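Render this sequence as a predicted structure.
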Amino acid sequence: METIRAHVVIDPLTRIEGHLKIEATVENKKVVEAKCAGTLYRGFEQILAGRNPLDAIQITQRFCGVCPTPHAIASAQALENAFGIMPPDNGRVIRNIMQGANYIQSHILHFYHLASLDYFRGPDVPPFIPRYESDYRVPQTVHDQLVSHYVQAYQIRLKAHELSAIWSGKMPHVASMVPGGVSIIPRLDNITTSLWRLKELTDFIDNVYIPDVMTLGEIYRDCFQLGIGNKNLLSFGLFDLDAEPDVMKRKRFFPMGRMTKGKIEPVDAQRITEDVKSSWYDSPSRVHPTRGETMPNPVKKGAYSWLKSPRYEGEVYEVGPLARIAMAYERKTNPKVVQLVDSKLQQLQLGPDALYSVMGRHLARALECKIVADEISSMIMQVKLDEPVCTNHTIPDSAQGMGLWCAARGALGHWIEIKNGKIARYQAVVPTTWNASPKDDKGKPGPIEQAMIGTTVEDTENPFALARIVRSFDPCIACAIHILEPGKSLKKFRVV
């Protein structure tokens, strides 16, 4: 049998945060090799070096305008770890509220304004055109409803930003995050206005967002078999529930953990390394972030991405809502998660393995959005008026610190080294570095690359299945300088 081979390039893949290039080698309509290339270089590590450690919270938030809150929290936790302090209960709870609001707006943004147009046509006006055609299947009545909800979601995201800004001062980029807690003094109107906005958000999640995901899940049932990945999952956890100084022992609403071959195991942050064989860096490879360097080399032979390749004990792990929901479901310690997941899977007549897929990631994200929104209500009521919100601190002359947290897109780590009262080294390993990582030193593809391998591409002129897979991970590569890999491609697309 003659082998029909094609090389497909999607560059840039749009409707994500930032710019991403996807390459796939297709043989007889099957993807046999895939590359996920981050085509940005920003150099925040160099920007931070030599600065006052207190600058880190504000500067690292500028990694991204969609998810600045988790960077602020991870950075603050790294500083607190270095300073030897912990926030009081009010500071901890208020941070959780800010993070929860950011989760809600991020999840709604992803589904409606980034991913949903993979499944239905928008009106024939910008920003819905130009577009590539796909196997759009929704009936007209459902189509009109989805377009209406697409527009409505803009206002709902605004409400989520407002909920955060009540406590953070502004959004994006929170103003009230400081080492030791927060700087805002809570008042009764903070509580009442938060509950009012949360009610609107909860109504939308329950009555619009989740039903829309379920509707698309019924129509695109085959997407529960698309983009499965390797099923290794990693989470650093979400929402601190106590003031345990050791983050590895700290109790969290979504616990820290990893799942390998269906088994839940603990996380040891010392076993995280970053490979750079396929990355445009001359930095040492396979080292822990505390020893990591950022030494760019855009002409490095054999490299194809500005993203490094984080690994845990040398293994590839997927991070994000799927990881948090799947592990919470497997643990069975939160009855609400188990009941919610079971009820929706039963409605779809699917088993838990369906979560490991393109549509499964969308479903996990929507269900997490509801769980987070419901939890925020109790968080708001935990705020105590006239109690402290921050712990005093002193900047040490020399110290190291680590902050581990979960952004909406997954496991996030910040590592800081202080010398002579200044930042000597700062490294951040963000969720998309895990998910969109290139091949590591052993040649193992990253999670998105693995999810694309084996995919059927019926029409190499319009490889829409690949775009659906990538967007299901909600990659976030913040906008900056474009550096493109030179070379001739057989097919090149700008997918909108």
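Summary. Confidence is low (pLDDT under 50) at residues 479-496. The domain at 5-495 is CATH 1.10.645.10 (Cytochrome-c3 Hydrogenase; chain B).
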